[in-house]
Design goal:
One of its GO terms (biological process) is L-phenylalanine biosynthetic process. GO terms for molecular function: chorismate mutase activity; prephenate dehydratase activity. Its EC number is 4.2.1.51, 5.4.99.5. Pfam families: ACT, CM_2, PDT. The structure is a single chain. By secondary structure, the chain is α/β, with parallel strands linked by helices. It contains twelve helices and 15 strands. About 45% of the residues lie in helices and about 25% in strands. Strands 1, 2, 3, 4, 5 and 11 form a six-stranded mixed sheet that branches. A five-stranded mixed sheet has the order 8-7-9-6-10. Helix 1 (about 5-45) crosses helix 3, helix 2 packs antiparallel against helix 3 and helix 11 (about 290-300) runs antiparallel to helix 12. The longest helix is centred in the first third of the chain and has 43 residues, at about 5-45. The two termini are about 45 Å apart.
Amino acid sequence: MSTPDINAELLKFRDQIDSIDQQMLALLNKRASLAQSIGHVKAKTDAPVMRPEREAQVLDKLNAANTGPLNAQHIHTLFKEIMSACRSLEREVHVAFLGPLGTYSEQAVWSFFGHCVQAEPVETIEEAFRQLQAQQVDFAVVPVENSAEGSVARTLDALVESTALVCGEVQLPIHHQLLCQTGTLEGIQKICAHPQALAQCRNWLAQYAPNIQQETVASNGVAAKMASEDNSVGAIAGQAAREHYGLKAFQEHIQDDAHNTTRFLVLGNQVTGPSGQDKTSLVASVPNQPGAVYKMLEPFNAENVSMTRLESRPARNGRWEYYFFIDLQGHQSEPAVTKALDQLKKNASFLKVLGSYPAAQRN
């Protein structure tokens, strides 16, 4: 086929795409107008501008109706941004996250909310909780556990003490890079990162940088910022930090576990309704006596409620007592979960339901 014939064929397809784009634009603006109307109705009762369960249901329906060639991830990415843009026309949503810019926590914000929110970096996990509790922000995003290194203790401790409710989760694949100004290890005197990031890359560091000092800092974003200001500093961080601070990668994918994933919790001040595929998180404590832990867990077995996570943490009261952090499949409003929780209240010396929310991994 000659070049003129190819160009004519391409022009035919491009004309169709242009026509579809115009139709999509009109429909998107119609959707945005409806979102504005919803915002006016919500304003009458001061209802939350974002309902995580509603957005999860929208995505579930779209995925069920999707026949391709776009896959589920394409649909998620496209419609998250559409919903984010429409939501911003109701009211701007403010989200606190563990900063500075360029952290995985920031990536988790974009993944859950889309880019049409006001993301506000804070210096500590505790500060994210404080701003949420003081209603300085609408939501907060904090790391809670990593598939390789386990739980984030500061988040667990804050969950016990705070009134914040879990209303969502993000499971983010972690791809660490060794970043610096030059892209080589020549002249690098220390490598900085969050303690968990250093631990997640310990084998790589032992092989490729055994003689370089390692230094823990508050976050990988902080490490990247340090590297951008000092050519003797290397940082372990992700692609977002690399782009934000203008750094070069000595090597990508340096994490020891190729499937390394961090789970983030989305916290708010609102109760989240059932989406159809939910989790419930809670923390409990039981008397220090024989069989107490068995009695705590037995109601879940009796009601056929699946427990997806169980972890203990010292209660820090000096009496060798423990808090048990538990994740369940199902929403706390579901009859089986409700019955199990009611029975648990009778057996536990302390019980706090942290929230029910749409599960990140959905069928």
